[in-house]
Design goal:
Length: about 425
């Protein structure tokens, strides 16, 4: 079933390839309507994650109502949106989450893929809601992709999320989605945000996901006020020094051990490269020319490192987006933020549409694979798979690990870099 679904995905992507090519050329000379949207429909959350502050700013009263969302999505701005992500906060805390999804499917004529990231921590709400969205996307011929966030195995997950029995609760949602996959085609997996607190558990999470036959993506923590409201946590949770090397090694291991064409490897190699080159970004990002982000109160951003450029409660989204001052801000983002930005958001969408960066990645990844797997790691008495210092120093970064500028980073349900599980390599690379 997964293969049939993936073939459909690839066919859809292939159909848009000529259009993508033209759009990329045109984008150099004039602003384009967005093809990628992240909508944080609420910051209300059922978790209180250590590395994120969205839960502190959750305020149902300031969230746009369904009627306001409908009015905003009736704008001409969304006519070219192909990839839409519903995020938060926790989207399933909204009683009307399924209606919001329906609006997106109805109002975005070119919608190809809808993604929802969830904590899965409230299974009695998440399971029926996600099931309804799966059914709707099936009926409307839209690819649906969802991931449950898992930041540790057992107690570790609860301590990151600050929720009792979090691992068990999320496990119920995971089990229900796996069961649903037996009768409905959609992409499902888990995502994990790695930061200084759970870095030592990353191998455990990977081993557990493999055992449970769950597709998994790892995100490197980022710090961004527009998306996570967490820039003040950077000093506390950003891995530095040996932790930073450990993280780099973990991502390189993924590139060396996972299939070459696994779409997520593009992002893992990018993370490893950025750690070693002083956080100099070389990867493309669709948000530079074709993305937009909408927050629960109607604020419009170009991306997670953007300032607010307007509010859809006050103005038409299309007028906000194409305003001269907004486009000038987008150029400022490109000049000042992009060069050091860690965001993986839909990076593969951009990469696959730019042949040269993707070809370069394939060469680099092939070389890494030839280097083989990293040294075996000792398992300490507690059972946690650790990273030995020798293995880490065997492959040090190309620069001092002293503090480097690292603006921007992310995680959790707000993450959008995640790919679609159960898609084959090519589809996972998010061709379109
Ligand atoms: S990372 Fe996601 S789940 Fe955790 S508090 Fe932030 S929005 Fe909620
Ligand atoms: S700042 Fe980051 S997220 Fe924003 S457009 Fe640049 S690379 Fe993309």
């Amino acid at each position: 079933m997964a293969q049939v679904y993936a073939a459909k995905y690839i066919a859809k992507a292939a159909l848009s390839a000529p259009r993508d090519f033209v759009r990329a050329a045109v984008a150099k000379y004039r602003p384009l309507h967005p093809t990628v949207l992240i909508f944080h429909c609420t910051f209300v959350c059922d978790a209180r994650c250590e590395m994120c502050s969205n839960w502190t700013r959750g305020d149902r009263k300031s969230d746009m109502s369904l009627a306001e969302i409908e009015e905003a999505f009736s704008s001409n701005l969304w006519k070219d949106v192909e990839n839409a992500s519903l995020s938060g906060g926790e989207p399933t805390t909204r009683n009307d989450m399924v209606d919001i999804c329906r609006l997106m499917v109805d109002k975005f004529p070119k919608l190809r893929k809808l993604t929802i990231n969830t904590t899965g921590l409230t299974p009695h709400r998440a399971i029926p809601m996600l099931t309804k969205v799966v059914e709707m996307c099936h009926e409307r011929n839209v690819i649906f992709s969802t991931r449950v966030s898992i930041d540790g195995v057992g107690e570790m997950h609860g301590s990151v999320r600050n929720v009792r029995r979090a691992f068990e609760k999320a496990g119920k949602t995971i089990a229900a989605m796996q069961e649903l996959q037996k009768t409905r085609k959609f992409n499902f997996g888990i995502s994990s945000t790695i930061f200084s607190r759970n870095l030592d558990d990353a191998d455990n999470i990977l081993a557990w996901a493999k055992k449970e036959k769950l597709d998994i993506v790892f995100n490197m923590v980022r710090f961004t006020d527009a998306m996570l409201g967490n820039s003040d946590l950077e000093g506390k949770y950003r891995p530095i020094g040996l932790e930073e090397q450990q993280m780099r090694r973990f991502f390189l291991d993924r590139v060396r051990q996972d299939p070459l064409l696994d779409g997520q490897n593009y992002i893992y190699l990018h993370y490893a490269d950025m750690i070693s080159n002083g956080y100099h970004r070389t990867a493309p990002c669709p948000f530079q020319t074709q993305g937009v982000m909408l927050n629960p109160n109607g604020d419009v951003f170009f991306c997670e490192n953007s300032e607010v450029v307007g509010n859809v409660r006050d103005d038409d989204p299309e007028a906000i987006y194409f305003r001269d001052t907004a486009q000038a801000h987008r150029r400022d983002i490109r000049d000042e933020k992009c060069p050091t930005c860690l965001s993986p958001c839909q990076m593969n969408v951009a990469a696959i549409k730019q042949v040269v960066p993707y070809a370069r990645f394939l060469v680099r990844a092939s070389l890494e694979k030839r280097r083989g797997n990293s040294l075996p790691r000792p398992v300490p008495p507690g059972g946690t798979v650790g990273h030995d210092a020798a293995a880490i120093s065997e492959d040090p970064p190309d620069r001092p690990v002293a503090m480097q500028a690292n603006p921007g980073a992310l995680g959790g349900a707000a993450g959008y870099g995640e790919l679609t599980p159960n898609e084959p390599a090519a589809a996972k690379a998010d061709i379109g």
